[in-house]
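Support request, please re-run this one:
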Amino acid sequence: MHRVRAFLIVAILLSVSSGGRHALAQTELAPELRDRPPVAAPTSKIDVGSIPLVLSESQEADNFASGLIRGLMTATHVKGVVVVAVKDDHVMMQQAFGTMTPDTSIALGRLSGVFETVGAMQQIEHGKLAPGADIAQALGETGNRGMTLAQVLSFRAGDPSLVRRALEKAAGAPSDDYVAKEVLLPLGMRSSRSQNGVIQTTPLDMSHLAIALVHDGAFENGRILQPASIERMQASVPAAHPALPGDGFGFTGMRRHGWRGLQHDGDAAGVETRLVIVPEAKLAYFIAVTGRPNAAFWHTFDDGLFDKLLPPRKPDQTAFGDAAAPGPAEAGRVAGFYEPARDSVGGVAPLKRAGMLRVRAMAEGTLVLTGDEDATLSPKPGGYWESADANIVAVARDGQLMLSTGAYGPLAIYKRSGFYALLALLAAIGTGVILWREQRGAAPNSAVLGAAGVCIGFLLLSVFVWLFSPIV
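Re-run finished. Output below.
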């Protein structure tokens, strides 16, 4: 104890001698603090528990996308994947695997049409194009074509080439030159170019466009559209039924877990691309994939990424119309086999559709979908069917089944298994007749031999198609 007190006194004196103006001498201590024994340091382990690691929204999205992509690449023939997600004015996630990098040059194919749509919106701002006017006026033609520019921009009529022609007529310049000067340059897309209507770009450059589309038309110091034009471009264009998600200009609509999104796919030179925008959340993401991704890949990756970036929220419970809920009779008329309709809307976002959809009707009027979509849809007041999570909506119109993911028409007869089963049955009957005649000693004539050849041909065709064609 004496040694400890001597040590403390020496330490205090040394502190005072070195200029420490706030050091206290032993005599300055309060009486109740004097002659206390020193406190020993603890020698046993103190359990403070684990400290939770808090990840940012961006880090969580990065980790999720990384795990999901690695798993899908192992299970599929995909060679490379890159995904860039943006939130408002910044990149929130960027991941690249395999043969793809953020700087990989890729062709956008049909997705290039988004840039021409932006150009058309600029001409609308300048008063040189009118969305409600007949497209013939925008093309400088006399008479009417019976479709408006707005219908063409939202894929309700015409084809994408009309947008390009209308843009060139209004701007007085080739589409490639106009897009390069008025869209790519302001966005700082230095690694991008437009050639013959096709955009050659990089995923990193595409993040600039994505930011502009969710950040009121601006990227850093560049601007391609005014906020009002962005809102007009992304506003919901009325669909065939109010329960279906409305499209925008240059995009087709989608709905998932209470969110309305806009989507557009591309496919060129062995690269599949997809751009998704969620205007209300000011969020967008761009995906590019090389290899052989199938519809199952796109469903798993795109749906998983969407749900990670945008947690589900309560869907809108608005009543759509006064019509009664479809009953068993309506469901029975809808039941059957379908394939994607050959319309312009179906060509905008085809990557998640493999091509076949089977619809079964249940006794209570419920529809069970398998194939492109696996879901059970309940009848709803307003004359439509809807899944429990409200992601899939179905409406029957003019012989088509219109889903919130795209329109489907009846499956062609030559793609149905029943058709080939009938051919096989005819071949079997014909062969049986020939064998019966032979057993009765009837000499085969040219007609019988011809019938035999036809039967054998039917049988071989049926077997071949059954084994190698995507029939249902």
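The chain has 13 helices and 19 strands. Residues 415-468 form one domain.
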